[in-house]
């Protein structure tokens, strides 16, 4: 029996491996302090009992960082509050994975996020000014700002945040986001202008991965920048129009890909798996699409050879409204349609698990 590699959960994956524990994930913004206890109850009463074994929490700048206190948002979670989340997750055998958006998503609408507020010199496109009223499309192709991956001080700052959040979460994996990056290798950037965008993107993935590897931790990212968007028909959001897709062949093979498609269950997990990458198929707000994702990943797991099979890790519900809004809709306290659609998607996931995994 020969060992091929050590899997994302630490298992030895061998030539005769027929099955691995399937990942069932839930990704959402970290709750605000005033909703923390309610969210913990949701974890213990709904996530764990319904088979969800992985929770990705988008923290970003909503933590009381000690390394760079000026990068805290208002009313951040404290260390003691995070420890309550950790204790709850452990009680439910839920792997807790923190997320800080790195590279892209350094602004939203008309406002900068904390990193570029405090360190404007990290801005990849300082010539693009934030509008008073944001609209899409716009002449600057501004969706979200990025930091320049070649700025000599940027990693000193962001890696300090990563190290701090990983320690408090007691986590073995970190989600770096890295989705929907439209600004990279900008022609007006004095450091990376004119350089190959795929190589720049892959190099940043590699830096983050290598930093995490020094403490035996794994990197997760969204997969859209690794997919070609035009010929495939995936479009500029679920795929790349900015020539970063070649990075799929350049990034380390132990990076875990969260492959999101929200309108149909695109079969792109097979592409990532054939490239040697482990993949999670992700959905959002359409119950029928949720079920299709889960059926698709089940098909891939059942109909793949022993080398490919372990790369299909599982599926994950994503939520893009605040945690409080989701909880209100879940418990019938709100009729917000966007939140209700996400709740319906999640309920389709747990219904599938109930019918097929128990």
From TrEMBL:
Keyword Hydrolase: yes
EC number(s) per entry: 3.2.1.52
Reactions listed under catalytic activity: Hydrolysis of terminal non-reducing N-acetyl-D-hexosamine residues in N-acetyl-beta-D-hexosaminides
GO CC terms: membrane
InterPro entries from the UniProt entry: Beta_hexosaminidase_sua/sub, GH, Glyco_hydro_20_cat
Gene3D superfamilies recorded: Glycosidases (3.20.20.80)
Source domain of life: Bacteria
GO biological process: carbohydrate metabolic process; glycosaminoglycan metabolic process
One annotated GO molecular function: beta-N-acetylhexosaminidase activity
Span of domain Glycoside hydrolase family 20 catalytic: 76-282
PANTHER family reported for this sequence: BETA-HEXOSAMINIDASE (PTHR22600), BETA-N-ACETYLHEXOSAMINIDASE (PTHR22600:SF57)
Family per similarity comment: Belongs to the glycosyl hydrolase 20 family.
Name the UniProt record assigns to this protein: beta-N-acetylhexosaminidase
């Amino acid at each position: 029996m020969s060992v091929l590699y050590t899997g994302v959960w630490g298992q030895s994956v061998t030539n005769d491996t027929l099955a691995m524990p399937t990942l069932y994930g839930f990704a959402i913004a970290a709750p605000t302090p005033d909703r923390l206890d309610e969210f913990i109850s949701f974890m213990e009463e709904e996530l764990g009992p319904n088979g969800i074994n992985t929770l990705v929490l988008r923290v970003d700048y909503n933590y009381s960082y000690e390394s760079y206190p000026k990068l805290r948002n208002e009313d951040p979670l404290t260390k003691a509050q995070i420890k309550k989340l950790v204790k709850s997750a452990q009680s439910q055998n839920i792997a807790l994975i923190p997320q800080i958006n790195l590279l892209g998503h350094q602004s939203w609408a008309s406002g900068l996020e904390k990193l570029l507020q405090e360190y404007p010199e990290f801005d990849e496109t300082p010539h693009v000014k934030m509008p008073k009223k944001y609209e899409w499309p716009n002449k600057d192709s501004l969706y979200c700002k990025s930091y320049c991956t070649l700025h000599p001080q940027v990693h000193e700052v962001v890696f300090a945040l990563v190290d701090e959040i990983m320690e408090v979460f007691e986590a073995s994996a970190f989600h770096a986001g890295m989705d929907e990056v439209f600004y990279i290798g900008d022609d007006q950037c004095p450091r990376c202008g004119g350089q190959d965008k795929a190589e720049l993107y892959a190099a940043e993935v590699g830096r983050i991965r290598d930093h995490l590897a020094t403490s035996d931790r794994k990197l997760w990212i969204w997969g859209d920048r690794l997919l070609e968007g035009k010929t495939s028909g995936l479009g500029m959001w679920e795929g790349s129009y900015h020539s970063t897709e070649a990075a799929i062949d350049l990034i380390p093979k132990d990076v875990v890909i969260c492959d999101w498609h929200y309108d149909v269950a695109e079969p792109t997990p097979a592409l990532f798996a054939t490239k040697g990458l482990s993949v999670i198929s992700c959905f959002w707000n359409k119950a029928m699409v949720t079920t299709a994702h889960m059926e698709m990943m089940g098909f891939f797991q059942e109909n793949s050879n022993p080398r490919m099979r372990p790369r299909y890790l599982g599926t994950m519900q994503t939520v893009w409204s605040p945690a409080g809004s989701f909880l209100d809709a879940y418990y019938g306290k709100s009729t917000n349609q966007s939140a209700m659609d996400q709740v319906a998607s999640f309920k389709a996931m747990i219904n599938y698990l109930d019918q097929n995994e128990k």
